[in-house]
Batch of 3 targets.
Target 1
Amino acid sequence: MYMDAAAMCCLGFGFLYVFSKYYVWGGVGLNFFICGFGFLWALPLKAIVHAIFEGEFHKLQINMTELTTNCHITAAVLISFGAFYGFTSPSQLLLVCLLEPFFMLINEHVVVKLLHVADAGGSLIVHMFGAFFGIAINIALNIKPKKLPEEHRTTSYMSDFGAMIGSIVLWVFWPSFNGALLYNDQTLQGRVLLNTYLAICASCAAAFATSSLAHRGRFEMIEIQNATLAGGVIIGMICPFQIDPWVSVLIGGIGGVGSSFGYAIYIFLERLGITDSAAVQMLHGLPGLFGGIFAAFAVLANNDNYLYSYNNGWLLETDSNRSRGDQFGYIVLACCSSLAIAIAGGLITGLLARLPLCPDVKTQDMLIDHDFWTIHSGCLIPEQKITRASSKKTLCWVTITTLPKA
């Protein structure tokens, strides 16, 4: 299960983030850096956060559970990276990698340990948290959609093809990601895999159908890349529950349809001046939020689900006597807590990233690889024009051509 979760982070997100025409190396390369740094940094950080709440340091035992939770923590950073994809320098990205896991672990402790709300698939503490954290960073960095070079925001036939491979990799491994932390209970893990499998299959079918209907018989690639996966996000908190198969299919279908129509919200955010580079709200933010809401109502519908909501794999023992109504309220409170900590943490991180210690990227140089990668002329499209900022802060055009083939 750990290898599946790691494959999702490295391969799934890596390929998914090659969609930009001029930021392919930045997308897959910096995604690789986030994985390597995040898997390592999460280990001491968990000991630090534990000491903050417990008042003393304890040695962290490195085992499969800790390695798998590292993947969940890193996944939240990767989701945030999708929001400010192409807008930050490597030093700013390093700052995000240092701070976001800290805020994420604080929120996880609040949700899981203090509120006693289990989230096996990370609908709230991974997906929704990462999406809103990234959007808050964009707001703090004052990234305005209208100021971005329109040419740099385009995709190509091959870049979208690569991103579609990433979506397929994520789709295949998503059931393992949701059940990775429940390997000690094969019965519960089997239920997680089944519910996630049904939901993500339903979201895939629903996304294709919705896209075709909305675009007069044609498919929109950005919707297919994102909405087909929404079932895995929205079922994440509910996947350990005892629900009928048709409920999983229904929830996954709602995720696929809602995520497809979520592209309208993406346009609405742009009109408000809020940038979401990889449309993470479509795939992670809103489906994660609705996953928490659906889990709250599932707790009311069945008392057994209350037990799994309180104590599935994240919490081993409890002496609480909460009612279903109490747990419903705590899940709603967990949604609010995750939103508040994500937005506040993102704003703080974004403001710190604007300090002189972190070199920024000029607006006209965003979403292109040339500032931070050595790119030879043979790697470029013939007669490709790239916007550059000169030393005098005026625009100049640099035309790079490749030699004709012999």
Target 2
Amino acid sequence: MSVKFGCLLLLLMLVNMTSGFSRSWRNSRYSLSNRMSSAERQLRTANQRILSNTNIIRALRLSLLRLQIRTSQQVRSLQLQINDLEQTGPRPSNRTTPSPLIASTFPPVPVVEGTTTTAVPVSCPNCVEKVRVNQDINLGELALSPTAHNVRGRVILLTNRTLVIDGFFYDGQGPDAHFYYGRSGSTPSSSGSPLPDEKGSFDKLGEYLNKTIMITIPERINVDNIRWISVWCVAFDVDFGHVVVPSSLKVTPGPQIIGAFSQLAHQVRSGPVTVLNSKQIMIPGLFYDGLGPAAYFWVGNGTQPTNEGRIIPDETGSTGLLKAYTGQTIVLTLPGCLKVNQISHLSIWCEKFEVNFGHVVIPKDLNIPCYRSSPRSPKYSPGSRATPDTSPDTT
């Protein structure tokens, strides 16, 4: 009897222990399930935050791009306002203080009594105005293909020398992919030519994940003649994605920035030099110590100045020795029938010792407006070394 009772007691103990283990297992499983649910919720929240941050970053990029466009338009507008003020005659000595934007963009121009202002740029009436420079011109989306290495993005023509690809994706796995452009047809082909990437390199493209990049079109290329832009595999002649440029696209000629003076001697330096039109060049922030024995503004052909160039007048119309410059913004007007497209460089040149103090290269085929002379022609100083050509400009 005692044995049976002992067995029964042992059985009850086992049942009780099993029940306890079962409850403990259920509690543990419930707790683990709650933790997993909480982790899943946190993961979903993190993904939503990442997506939200990605959208914010994309919006900020587009806002920055629009700000760059507006700033560029404001600079262009200020340039035209300054030229208009110059056309009206000498500035009064009691003029008001310029706005902060003008003061920060252009160094002050000194008033020289007894001098006349140079002519201002006027667009040629024959120039077709279909699309304005610096307008946000959406050329379209890069074409998608299931086998095109995930290439996609929106192509924007920012200026006649600048393309922007917004939201650009490319997995970087193509064997020899490059940006390519073509001058004919609507379908990319091996007859195209390479474009530099956003770094100015012609190396094969790497990976891009939702990037906004800016591509500078080489100086020798006229954007009006581009018919398509592609991410092209040179090794296998395969188009990974492209956009067609409308044949009706015409970019209105406008001032072109060509770079700053090289710094070689006599403290010569400047801000970004701008070709305003077919005869006028603006040099902002020009510095020169004025100590050269026979220094002049000098133009010619070739990438480097030589003694085969010629003198051009300074901003006052004089071809005498150059004075010192301490950060002024000046506008030079080429004399007579001489045009910007007929020269390759502008320099400060010492004619006595045939030394280049500093120069800037002028690219060919600049998309600039034509020039129309003002009724007031620049005055030339008596006894200047070069006799100006006063034949009319027929542009």
Target 3
Amino acid sequence: MSYVDDEAKMALAALSDEIYKLICPYSLEIMMDPRTLPCGHTLDHDSIMKLAEEGNGIITCPVCRATFDADKVSLEVNAITKRIIEGIKGLNQKRIVICDRCNKRVAKIACQDCGMLYCQTCFDLVHQGRLKEHRWNYLDVAVQKELPYCAVPGHEEYRLDLYCPGWDEFICLMCQATTHRDKEVYPVIKAAHFAKDDLQEWIADTSKRKRKLKSVVQAVDKVIESLEQRAEDELRTLDELLNALIDKLGAQAKFSDKIIERKILDVDKLCGVRREIISTVADMTDDVAVQNAPSTCQTPSN
């Protein structure tokens, strides 16, 4: 997006042209004491003195190359240029509001119910008890810091009240007329508004993405919930199948135990029959042996 509208660009361009006229063509610095040569060109008084010194009493205009005798030339003050310079300096001076109570310290708080401006100390002293309920607000001087002065040599009296997006730096009016003459610049106040608009746009975009992300998270939560429910149902079914299988195997094991017990009883019976048969055979064998054995008794002779 463009940071400066067409009207602001035209105003800044016009201001740049006017400020450019305040630059000394010899020193390329803002003129502090503008003087006009007979040829019509304006230079700073210090620059004219340097030209006279370099030319051994002859002043050569750096613009049209006209020469003048330093002892005879009349160096009139360019009143219009001087008023413009003083006016620009005045743009950087901020009116200080003094406390209505002590008339010493800077006022930082405005009390709507008292209708007075207070410094912090006087406000704390006055607003005690019921007066604490008075409606009040901080003045701009209390919440806004003074803009710093430019550090460029020759620009120390001018505040950094312009911003150059191309160089991403704050500049003063003199910087805008010299090193940033062909650059797009705009006032710091506008920069704050544009930054606020960009921030609000970013917040709105972030809110949209947050809502979209929230809907996606809700959809994912539903899918997860569905998968968890499905997994729970499948686990329940598997548990039921396992329990049924365990019951079936248990029943089969009980049936097998009964069969084994029956077989064991049958074997025990057979073993008993075998023992009886063996016992009977043994008895029969003994009887046969007794019957076939020779008699050891002899009949006595007559």
